[in-house]
Amino acid sequence: MALRVIPVDPFDLVIFGATGDLARRKILPGLYRRFLAGQMTPESRIIGAARAELTDAAFAQSVQDAIEEFVPAAQRDAASVAAFLALLAYVPIDAKGEGGWAALKGRVRSGVVRAFYFSVAPALFGDLAERLHLHGIADGQSRIVVEKPFGRDLATARALNTALARHFAEEQIYRIDHYLGKETVQNLMAVRFANILFEPLWKAEYIDHVQITVAETVDVEGRGAYYDKSGAMRDMVQNHMMQLLCLIAMEPPYHFDPDAVRDEKLKVIRALDPVKPEDIVRGQYLGANGSGSYVEHSEDPASRTESYVALKCHISNWRWKGTPFYLRTGKKLRARSSEIAITFKEPPHSIFDDDRGWRENVLVIRLQPNEGMNLMVMIKEPGPGGMRLMQVPLDMSFADAVGAEAVDIPDAYERLIMDVIRGNQTLFMRGDEVEAAWAWADPIIQGWEGRGDKPQAYDAGSSGPDDAMMLMHRDGRRWRDIR
Ligand code: NAP
Question: Residue 130: which residues within 8 A CB-CB, separation 6 or more?
Fold first, then answer.
């Protein structure tokens, strides 16, 4: 089955930081794929901007190199690549200087959607917003896209929101959380709100607990200096995992509309209880098989930054009172695996004499690898010999349902950029959401900093620190295997 592709309106997209890692790996190859799919039309333009003095041709060459490196060969048709490269231009600009802005103004057109992607360090977001405004390059219809991290605490997030709000209305600001662009994350909303099946059970009465795992095998990948100031809590939990938790826990919005969805997510964040110190485990990986330990990747040999965090949180509202949400994320773990697992409670009474094979119903939403959903249900073990129970997966994966292996599903960045052009903010974080998430995270971070807690060491290639296992064991539960 072919995916239906609806072309977006012609646009001018200016990418600040167009020579950087994110633009090369994700944004530009993603735009090429949307062009190939017919979603980005040839009337659109992409204008790269950074300090490097490049000509249009040199920039186009660097984009061609990026496409060759990051787009699979089967999708690199020479004519399409050439047609895509013809849509590119480049303007040298320093976000903090005055040169180049007049040239940029000359390059953007009126009468098309204008979007500005800030793929630069957050310290430059305010400068870019101000200069776009001062030089009359952005108008009331323009959109800006900002990357993570959005602040490192509530105070810095507020300052960023204030800096952007000086020149752009909230409806013009698209704060990217690429987890929200994942197919299964959106599918989660479809499963919850387009079926009658799950919603009646979607509450503390029937759900025992929820586990959200984002496990990585990589180390800090040469980003030690950045990561040391961040850590797993800021890098993953406050943003990506918080968004996942919100989508699981939120009330049905009255409509699938940006503010209706974001209002409901905000209510969840505000209903989160403070997390108790005993419900938090931090870890830091040790080296193994020639790969270095965290402190070897850090610039600080005594770094106490966590490369792993697990915590238990509670949502104080009618729906979730009594159902814990366990979150864990870490680097250098056994496998790369991100999933949400919703474990249902036992049936109130068993009618079977032998129910030793009984397991809880679990709805597993896999974000990576192999995006998809599985509902673990009990059935009778086939064959003679009485009633024995076994658990089987009801596979609800998108790929199987529509034959998506053969089909070109846009990756998260592609989808989100097209949403920016369409003017749809549903999958972007609103300013008050980000601030509420920091207001929840700040006391947790300040707590361990104030206590001088050291993260617990864990072996590279393991499932994380022992204390994280205990966090669930003491509640009579266990983490799902990371595999
Ligand atoms: P990067 O590789 O360091 O690239 C930074 C880009 O900004 C370069 O194009 C650089 O080019 C440009 N730049 C630096 N200073 C500038 C200035 N004063 N004026 C104009 N342009 C300037 O960074 P990145 O990894 O691509 O990350 C970009 C943003 O995305 C950051 O906010 C980062 O946190 C976020 N992000 C990145 C990733 C990722 O996987 N890389 C993932 C999530 C979020 P010149 O030096 O030539 O100016």
Answer: 163, 166, 167
Distance 146 CA to ligand 1 centre (A): 11
Catalytic residue flag (residue 240): yes
> Of all protein residues, whose CA lies closest to atom 4 belonging to ligand 1?
20
Lowest-pLDDT range, 48-57, 179-188, 402-411? 402-411
**DSSP structural state of residue 404:** G
Residue 426: closest CA among 415, 436, 435, 437: 415
Give every CB contact of residue 110 below 8 A, 6+ residues apart in sequence. Answer: none
User: Smallest Cα–Cα separation from 171: which of 144, 137, 147?
Assistant: 144
State the average pLDDT over residues 95-111: 94
Gap from CA of 461 to ligand 1 centroid (Å): 30
Helix, coil or strand: residue 178: helix
Residue whose tokens read 């406050």 = 238
Question: Which of 14, 120, 150, 164 to mutate to test ligand 1, by most ligand atoms within 8 A of the CB atom?
Answer: 120
CA distance 128 to 117: 10
Q: What is the pLDDT of residues 276-300, one digit of tens each?
A: 999 999 999 998 777 889 998 888 8
Question: CB count, 10 Å around CB of 440?
Answer: 21
As a whole number of angstroms, the distance between CA 42 and CA 106 comes to 20
Ligand 1 atom with least separation from CA of 50: 21
161 exposure class (CB count in 10 Å sphere: 0-12, 13-18, 19+): buried
Model pLDDT, residue 406: 45
Instruction: Among 14, 19, 119, 235, say which to mutate for ligand 1: greatest number of ligand atoms within 8 Å of CB.
Output: 119
pTM of the model: 0.95
Question: Ligand 1: residues within 6 Å at CB?
Answer: 16-23, 50-52, 93-96, 119-122, 124, 147-149
Asked if 118 and 145 touch (Cβ cutoff 8 Å), the reply is yes
Distance 399 CA to ligand 1 centre (A): 33
The gap from C-alpha 255 to its chain's centroid, in whole angstroms, comes to 23
DSSP, res 338 = E
